[in-house]
Design brief:
Blueprint: H1 5-21, E1 23-29, E2 35-41, E3 44-46, E4 50-56, H2 60-67, E5 70-77, E6 82-93, H3 96-102, E7 120-134, H4 138-151, E8 160-164
Antiparallel strand pairs: 1-2, 1-5, 3-4, 4-7, 5-6, 6-7, 7-8
């Protein structure tokens, strides 16, 4: 099913935000049904539909993802007033060629044998839905507050909010 231009633009905007922020909070469901959240470094965003990360095969998230493939990713850039929530389905794979394309020298701290390290797993998240917020600047917030005081009505949503499915 072809994407509409509006959706393509939203996917491109979302991908640009993810590339800028890079660090996400990945939430999985542990074996007892509780949420488990930890930071992960985004390595690549493909066509606004897939996000790639590295993880270790011995990481607790591997067992959690085998049990439940659903994940949530949260990105935040408070200085830029950008916030993004992504939910999707994760898969784990071993692909030395893809790992080599995603590889950077800083990864050697975790995987000393390089992109072919046997402990290295690729974590692929296929995006099912996302929502982002771009907050207004200080002047827009003050103007909305002043309008609310004068009219007695709460401000409408200020800034930009988009949902992508």
């Amino acid at each position: 099913m072809p994407r509409s231009e509006g959706r393509a633009d939203q996917l491109d905007a979302m991908a640009a935000m993810i590339r800028k922020i890079r660090i996400a909070l990945l939430t999985t469901v542990d074996l007892e049904g509780r949420f488990h959240t930890r930071p992960v470094q985004t390595l690549q965003v493909e066509r606004g539909e897939v996000i790639w990360f590295f993880t270790g095969w011995s990481s607790p998230k591997v067992d959690e993802l085998i049990h439940d493939h659903r994940v949530s990713l949260g990105y935040a850039d408070p200085g830029g007033r950008i916030y993004l929530a992504v939910s999707g389905v994760a898969s784990l794979l071993r692909d030395p060629a893809k790992a080599g394309r995603l590889w950077s020298a800083e990864q050697r701290a975790y995987y000393p044998d390089g992109s072919g390290d046997r402990r290295l797993a690729l974590l692929k998240v296929r995006i099912e839905q996302a929502e982002y917020w771009i907050g207004p600047g200080r002047v827009a917030r003050w103007a909305a507050a002043a309008k609310a005081v004068v009219t007695g009505k709460p401000a409408e949503v200020i800034g930009e909010n988009r949902k992508i499915r």
